[in-house]
Amino acid sequence: MASNVNPTVRRRRLGQELRRLRELKGMTAEEVAERLLVSQSKISRLENGRRSISQRDVRDLCGVYEVEDHRIVDSLMQMAKDSRQQGWWHAFGDIPYSVYIGLETDAASLRVYEPQVVPGLLQTRQYAEALIAGALPESGTTDVEKRVSVRVRRQERVNDTEHPLRLWVVIDEAALRRIVGDKQLMREQLEYLVELSQLPHVTVQVLPFDMGAHPGINGQYAILEFPDAADSSVVYIEGVTSDLYLEKANDVQKYSVMYEHLRAQALNVDHTRQFIADIAKEYAR
């Protein structure tokens, strides 16, 4: 298969289609599980794209749903085959947030609210190294370097001149004040942040301390949107041992509205650049 096949996105699309076929048949996930002698949780994981789907799974489900059009079955079988291909990130070994990387790789736009640190796509290598080493004190040098390399590889979407990721970030002032590494490293990071904020497809806004309480007070999240209308938007919330992906339209709408409030309360683009530049100068003293 071509190298641009994204297994994560293929699984999502296939899962959505299998869910649609089940609903057309008027069956519950529990009923399907009983017919196939599998757990209901397996059916749910197949439909939400969090589990690899084999061609045998597709064949069995199409049998239960009485899909008679061989073209549909063949198309779904090919999607199952594509979904088992490996994305670029698999070359780095076991990455805890590989599902997110797959989504981010295929996303057309990404909206991020980050209250604690500079967002990963806008980090310098030195900042990323210090941040990851500090956040994962029990990890060895090799694991830290692997995670840094993955982060740098992800940043290619920001620097892609042909198909760049449309990135909008709102950063809390705390992320600029928290000294990761040392002051010189922070100065370089903030200067780099100002530089990236001038790219036409990157928007950076800062939410200053004096803004007080705001809708993002509960923590970090990201909203991913995709070029294909068939792929629903996803809200991603990072966790310590597991991550949360919200795809229901009502959930995505709530987080989108919350993000609009954050944008409105944050400094505008020009004031943000000056704000960041002023803090960078403080680190140079």
TrEMBL record:
Domain HTH cro/C1-type: 18-73
UniProt organism field: Streptomyces maoxianensis
Listed name of the protein: Helix-turn-helix domain-containing protein
SUPFAM superfamilies assigned: lambda repressor-like DNA-binding domains (SSF47413)
Entry coiled-coil feature ranges: none
Pfam families linked to this entry: DUF5753 (PF19054), HTH_31 (PF13560)
Positions of transmembrane segments: none
PROSITE patterns for the chain: HTH_CROC1
